[in-house]
Amino acid sequence: xxxxxxxxxxxxxxxxxxxxxxxxxxxxxxxxxxxxxxxxxxxxxxxxxxxxxxxxxxxxxxxxxxxxxxxxxxxxxxxxxxxxxxxxxxxxxxxxxxxxxxxxxxxxxxxxxxxxxxxxxxxxxxxxxxxxxxxxxxxxxxxxxxxxxxxxxxxxxxxxxxxxxxxxxxxxxxxxxxxxxxxxxxxxxxxxxxxxxxxxxxxxxxxxxxxxxxxxxxxxxxxxxxxxxxxxxxxxxxxxxxxxxxxxxxxxxxxxxxxxxxxxxxxxxxxxxxxxxxxxxxxxxxxxxxxxxxxxxxxxxxxxxxxxxxxxxxxxxxxxxxxxxxxxxxxxxxxxxxxxxxxxxxxxxxxxxxxxxxxxxxxxxxxxxxxxx
Length: 373
What we know:
Layout: H1 3-10, H2 14-21, E1 25-28, E2 35-38, E3 50-52, E4 57-58, H3 70-77, E5 82-87, E6 91-98, E7 101-106, H4 113-122, H5 125-130, E8 134-141, E9 159-167, H6 176-186, E10 193-197, H7 202-215, E11 220-224, E12 233-236, H8 238-250, H9 257-273, H10 278-304, E13 310-317, H11 320-332, E14 337-339, E15 343-345, E16 348-356, H12 358-368
Antiparallel strand pairs: 1-2, 2-3, 3-4, 5-10, 5-11, 6-7, 6-8, 8-9, 11-12, 13-16, 14-16, 15-16
């Protein structure tokens, strides 16, 4: 690996790169290909940036900022038309070809064995044969998503939806219209394009879209400049905020405090900006309260009855080796999980996974036994 060339592409000095290798850059030799992974953001280089052994670089996908007062943020952030796409609720992956092999990177820069098998099944080989330089940024969603299982999308298994396209060794992405053109050309699914609006009328249009998506149990929207002249913004529905709280309070000691607080704060700002009536606000408050109390009570009662607090998910694999590799991948990510025996299902295997939620288990039992908070 030519460190000088790598440093030049990253936009830093070679000595700075060597210094980062001693602090935040981690080497990964499994699964292949070998790579260096930026564990944290540094020197303007996004976390999750990957340098492969062959010298190719894939920059981390940047975090998307979130406004709380949408109308004000639109006027402050955008100067031209605003393209609106659906924000999907799954896990973020970057799919690319390395040494003629398709791999899928997690947001943190790991090669995920399960996501890689899914990508190899869903992304046409022709795409990377014709465009080996491309990096497909997308969301994997569906009930057989082991990270975020959702049954609100039109699949019984797991699907890949393209939302952006980048190139190796380059920062930036293609933009909305080029991304959707590429998806159509190669028969890929893409996140729904919900319209393009002038900034002066965008707020009301987007508000109505978010309300509609919320009624469908969908997550929300991503607002983009069509030509990527400014960074995108994301905005979520109340239904998603409440759904997130319901999940988190079921495993209350395994989530950071900011996860709970940020979603509650979003609800307050949205209620004010949408000028809700007292009746509408009380309904929102009731929904938030139920999202907090009901799953928390259920967790306490289950532990009181002697049950373990666990998360149940499932995956579908073509190869049992993928399942074994994915089990190791979860373990190296700090997730304790038990895999059920594989169940043959047509030309694949369906495998249930029990994720052990140790912190909430231990804390709930201790509190039930009289420990102080």
